[in-house]
Design a protein that fits this description.
The protein is of the alpha+beta class. It contains two helices and 13 strands, in the order ββββαβββββββββα. The protein is elongated, with a radius of gyration of 26 Å.
Length: 188
């Protein structure tokens, strides 16, 4: 449900067959929650998330303290809207309206190279619910951009550009030297 899986595999041991069934309990790709639990230890996170006390539709489990404390356990009536403006492999955009502060949660895998921009200001991306992403949001309407910005990819790009430039200069110098030698032999 946390991973937005709309279908699951059903195994029939007696018939020795498998089929695909739709799930009615999966979470949306993007949604708001208004209660956060800060649990730093992996074992404690797992214990809480597998208990009956954890409801991912109402609570997000994060490792770091949010900028403002959240503790609104009766948040099921808080209205919010999420519109997906664009969705790509390396960049996603959302329009979110919420009546109070909370966490914008994504059923997308957390990785440190993902950056979040809320109304053009960079915000921290929290590792949420073990391996997903969340962003702290204030009340109001916001434009959110999430994009993948790997420093390793940027460094590799600059190294490739520098290598291409050095190779181009080397090719130019070699070609120029060969022309001079050919012209010198031709004039003798």
């Amino acid at each position: 449900d946390l991973m937005n899986a709309k279908y699951h595999i059903v195994v029939d041991q007696q018939r020795r067959s498998m089929s695909i069934a739709s799930s009615s309990t999966y979470l949306s790709r993007a949604f708001m929650v208004y209660d956060a639990r800060v649990i730093k230890d992996d074992a404690e996170q797992k214990a809480f998330m597998t208990s009956d006390a954890f409801n991912p539709r109402q609570t997000v489990v994060i490792e770091d303290e949010p900028p403002a404390g959240l503790s609104n356990r009766d948040s099921t009536k808080t209205p919010f809207t999420v519109k997906v403006a664009s969705y790509g492999l390396n960049k996603m955009e959302f329009e979110v309206t919420t009546s109070k502060q909370g966490f914008f949660c994504l059923s997308e895998v957390y990785y440190p190279a993902w950056k979040a921009y809320v109304d053009d200001a960079e915000r921290p991306v929290y590792r949420a619910n073990w391996n997903l992403r969340a962003i702290f949001m204030e009340a109001g309407t916001h434009h959110i951009v999430m994009q993948y910005e790997s420093s390793g990819f940027r460094q590799g790009s600059w190294i490739s550009i520098a290598t291409l430039a050095v190779c181009s200069v080397g090719l130019f110098m070699t070609t120029r030297k060969m022309r001079k030698e050919r012209d010198r032999k031709g004039s003798v």
